[in-house]
Design a protein that fits this description.
By secondary structure, the chain is mostly helical. The chain is built from 8 helices and no strands.
Length: 212
């Protein structure tokens, strides 16, 4: 099996997992949980579609069942948020309910993140297929060299903030430090082979558009 198979299955399992938690804990009227289900559940389905339509070569590598389970255990850290929301573990056992404006902020963040993440990945896939060997310096990559990761950051912040606790944010930081940054650094090293990369680097940010 390939790495993407384990990732895709886990992404697809998110919506059923949240529904199962709601069933077990009898929390069908928890608005925050339903918003989480809508955001993370739909993202899981979109990820699977993306994997089928414009896959990322990074996840096409074959792996053992043990490494696949390692991937699963890591991705399951993202499921801490719905558990916190529905159990109220850090809220004296009272399930969490976020205010309407807070929910709106998380939804807004998620939507912008999805646009950045999927648009950038689609552009990269199209360029690699139609114009191989050409450095991408326009479109979604014009002002930011890692627009897709910036989008993912907004997406997972939207998920994590719904729990209103620091643990999901620390889990996200763990992924950023252990997986995202090394991947971005390897990408920078790979792109440096292009003669025009240094000029492109001067005119674009690393991950935060117009900032860093």
């Amino acid at each position: 099996m390939k790495q993407k198979h384990f990732i895709d299955i886990h992404k697809g399992a998110t919506a059923p997992f949240v529904l199962l938690l709601m069933y077990v804990l009898d929390q069908w009227d928890n608005t925050t949980a339903w918003v989480y289900f809508g955001l993370h559940g739909s993202y899981g389905l979109m990820w699977i579609l993306k994997s089928k339509i414009f896959p990322d070569n990074s996840w096409e590598k074959p792996c053992s069942i043990w490494y696949g389970l390692y991937i699963w255990s890591g991705l399951s850290l993202y499921w801490i948020s719905p558990w916190i929301i529905l159990t109220g573990y850090f809220n004296n056992g009272i399930p969490l309910e976020a205010s309407p404006h807070y929910l709106g902020l998380c939804i807004f963040m998620f939507a912008i993140g999805v646009f950045c993440h999927f648009s950038a990945d689609m552009q990269k896939y199209s360029y690699l297929k139609l114009r191989p060997g050409v450095l991408i310096t326009d479109g979604m990559m014009k002002r930011c060299r890692n627009t897709n990761y910036f989008g993912e950051l907004l997406i997972y912040l939207g998920f994590g903030l719904l729990a209103q606790h620091w643990i999901p944010i620390v889990s996200l930081l763990f992924f950023i430090m252990i997986i995202w940054i090394p991947n971005m650094r390897r990408k920078e090293k790979s792109l440096s082979r292009y003669a025009e990369f240094e000029e492109y680097k001067k005119n674009s940010s690393f991950i935060f558009p117009f900032i860093f």
